[in-house]
Amino acid sequence: MMNKLLALILLLFTSQAFAFTGDDLLEPEKAFALEASVQNGDTLVAEYRIADGYYMYKDKFGFESDTPGISFGTPRIPDGTVKDDEFFGRVETYRDHVRIEVPIQREPGAGATTLKLKALSQGCADIGVCYPPLTQLASLDLPAAPTSSSRGNGAVNALSQLAGDIGGGNADELLEPEKAFALSVEPISQNAVVARYTIAEGYYLYRDKLSFRIKDGEGNRIGPVNPPEGEKVEDEFFGLTETYRGEVEILVPILREEGASNRVTLEADYQGCADLGVCYPPLTQTVSFEFTSDLAASVDIPAATERAAPPVSEQDRIAAQLADGRLWLVVLAFFGFGLLLTFTPCVFPMIPILSNIIIGQKNLTTRKAFFISLIFVLAMALTYTVAGVFAGLAGANLQAAFQNPWIIGTFVVIFIALSMSMFGFYDLQMPSAIQTKLSNISNKQEGGTFIGAGIMGFLSALIVGPCVTAPLVGALLYISQTGDAFLGGLALFSLSMGMGTPLLIIGTAGGKILPRAGGWMDPVKAVFGVALLGMGIWLLERVIPMPVALFLWGALLIVSGIYMGALQSLAPGASGWRNLWKGLGLVLLVWGVLLMIGSASGGRDVFKPLSGITSSVAVGGAAGTPAQAQGLQFRKIDSLADLEREVASASAAGQPVMLDFYADWCVDCVRMERTTFQDAGVIQALSGAVLLKADVTANTSDHRDLMRHFSLFGPPAIVFYDAGGNELRNHRIVGYTPAGRFTDHVNNALGG
């Protein structure tokens, strides 16, 4: 059967990836052996012995304490070897051995004598296999804490002495950290506070060293925190990094359960340096605040202090909802998001794919249709979930990797083969030898059908709908920020099942409403065959020139119109259905001819096939009159360096910037190009802005680095900068946005 052929094709796809035996691969604890110890009572030393033929990633190390009153500062990890990794792009790695030092931080009065360590890491083998994130546990003897008035003061005193030596004996030149980096916290609503660092002159804070956690306050949790962009500097201690001077305000979302305590104690981790060349160790300050009844309910409402709260992007808000952690709410909310995405380009094309699987079955029953649909949907959902968790943990979009001409071309060949069988040219069957083997495994004919449905669900999830949406990005952001693959994966699975529920209903209903075998089944199968060919052309649009795609659409419509009798005379007394059938055929024939003309004239839009001709007429219509530009005009960029250059140039000219992430294989990107970016209101709202476009169709390492810089997982996405060159982080847009809403958003972001 045709589904068994699909199983063979998938086997050819995956055979290379699994050409090794389990005995060749070491257990992760042996491949990455951990030796941990405590030195001087205040430093954890973690040494990894890495087996030959294996390597570890720098950015995957993490250390957590399960001992109350004990926490860790920022790990001091040596520089690794930079490489372009097949799994994670441009990264730093280690082989043979790596030694990491982690400051131990004790709360006042903590008298623990044992440190329970949880060490996180991830590595790969040279044979092409990447291990999942690894957690290793250790219990270490912990010496008594050195006497100190505050956490880190011993190191600060030593720094003060060093500063005195450098500065000619005046140790007072180095301020205490609480004075150099004075922290205050102010609630601005019932679910958010502003943490404000007032930084002394001659001192600066590191952006990537800031973090917050709740120490006391039952029922309160920290949501995702996104500090504002800082000044980019080449730092003598940490290389290229972002720093703050003077003052910085950070919006800290607080996720509150019903009945949560109003009195909250917040711990803030930070690290900073003095200009005289001294860098403080990682430090912690503790502050308390209270949520009072006069505060606004939401961060979106101006607080009692008359400060308008910063906006929060939709994907960040969804990530914060995930961090709330209530499983039933997560499942319900993301299932609802999936239902809303059903008839978008991410899901709608799967309807004819599933329908074609069902329509080709013999002896179809409602029960069989239900199970075929269920397996298709489950395969799709599991693929979305695994690919999404991979993207969240690794920062790489697996679906984007499948948008290349060879993979899409193979999928199109499958569609053509299936459509030809629908037209009755042949019956797709596996070779008899393979059929015999399958029969020995299972005597049920449905086995091949179910396998084929699962394969098509798997491939459809990876190839057909790769565009990102706000709910998807919210879940991926949560996974990337917390490493919580379980809750993030559960959200993605719920999202996928919401998307698949209508498919399940449509497929199951096919068991009742589709016609039984007979002569009138042939036209029905022919319609589905044409739909499959249309799906093939729709996929090819991502990798072939648009005029060629118009030619293929035209050919398909012309042949379909002729098949429907557009050029045949109607017999006397023909039925109304026969007249309607011929009329529809004529419509398809005429539209196909227009597409052929549009292809020859350089047209690029199936719904405006003659746009190439009309634009030429407009250009030459009035002598001396320049043609009016159609839509927004973008400058192309390909890398982070290109972006920084263009933003700096725009900032010097006092212009804001809009950056559009686009790909040919992204259906919503193309839809934005043809609708939103052609709207007069949008063009007017962006008239004073510099417009940049990052075309990430090729998914090169520069493209991945650029998206990783913004924590993006794929297009479409829009990023805004103000006239000073600062990114408006909370005004990002992910997914398709219609023209009216986009215009309002631009005016709010850029002050239009």
How would the blueprint of this fold be written?
Elements: H1 2-14, H2 28-31, E1 32-39, E2 43-50, E3 54-57, E4 62-65, E5 70-72, E6 81-85, E7 89-94, E8 97-106, E9 114-121, E10 123-125, E11 129-130, E12 134-141, H3 153-166, H4 177-180, E13 181-189, E14 192-199, E15 203-206, E16 211-216, E17 220-222, E18 231-235, E19 239-244, E20 247-256, E21 263-270, E22 272-274, E23 278-279, E24 283-290, H5 314-323, H6 327-340, H7 350-359, H8 366-394, H9 398-401, H10 405-422, H11 432-441, H12 446-463, H13 470-482, H14 485-513, H15 521-540, H16 546-563, H17 576-600, H18 611-621, E25 635-637, H19 640-652, E26 657-662, H20 667-674, H21 680-685, E27 690-695, H22 701-709, E28 717-721, E29 733-734, H23 739-750
Parallel strand pairs: 25-27, 26-27
Antiparallel strand pairs: 1-2, 2-8, 3-7, 3-10, 4-9, 5-8, 6-7, 9-12, 10-11, 13-14, 14-20, 15-19, 15-22, 16-21, 17-20, 18-19, 21-24, 22-23, 26-28, 28-29
